[in-house]
């Protein structure tokens, strides 16, 4: 598939839709307008790639709708050069958004086929600032810690304590928290070694964050 003028026009329309829905960070909107989302999903969905909705990517996982991606990214307050851990690589679209914001991205996926596919996508698109791993997201990447930011892209039934340990002081984690069909987006800031501040935001729906790995 190619990135045509039609695709670019549809992205422009999507960006305006996201702006109308309350996304204010122009850097995030600019990146959403740049990345060819249709290349991260099955060709069957290409005609709807720039609608504000999720799509299945296999293994019971989805690529989140663009508003959710933009919302989480905006909450993360990404700055150039920051070291960011993403839990749940999925299609690799969110990782690419972070990379386009000039972050140093470490992303981990528990489904081997999705991890391998995402690695190929990053290579094809020249995202050399993304390091992708196959593993258990609840464990994170202690060997690469600490991180400035951590982004979780699945619904967590509990706050992963191992991930909190991997945050820098003043670092932030954005995580959809809760069980059931609806979760609340929260942002956790590490104030010092043992103290954390929690902020609550809007409700969303994510696939569940699960422990372990699947081949």
Topology record:
Elements: H1 5-20, H2 26-34, E1 55-58, E2 61-63, H3 66-76, E3 83-87, H4 93-100, E4 104-109, H5 112-125, E5 130-134, E6 147-152, H6 161-165, E7 167-177, E8 183-190, E9 196-204
Parallel strand pairs: 3-4, 3-6, 4-5, 6-7
Antiparallel strand pairs: 1-2, 7-8, 8-9
Helix pairs in contact: 1-2
Spell out the key features of this protein.
215 residues, two-stranded antiparallel ribbon, globular, 7-stranded mixed sheet, alpha/beta
Protein model, in words:
By secondary structure, this protein is an alpha/beta fold. It has a single domain, classed as Rossmann fold. It is 29% helix and 27% strand. It is built from 6 helices and 9 strands; from the N terminus they run ααββαβαβαββαβββ. The strands form 2 sheets. The chain has a 7-stranded mixed sheet with strand order 5-4-3-6-7-8-9. α1 runs antiparallel to α2. The two termini are 28 Å apart.
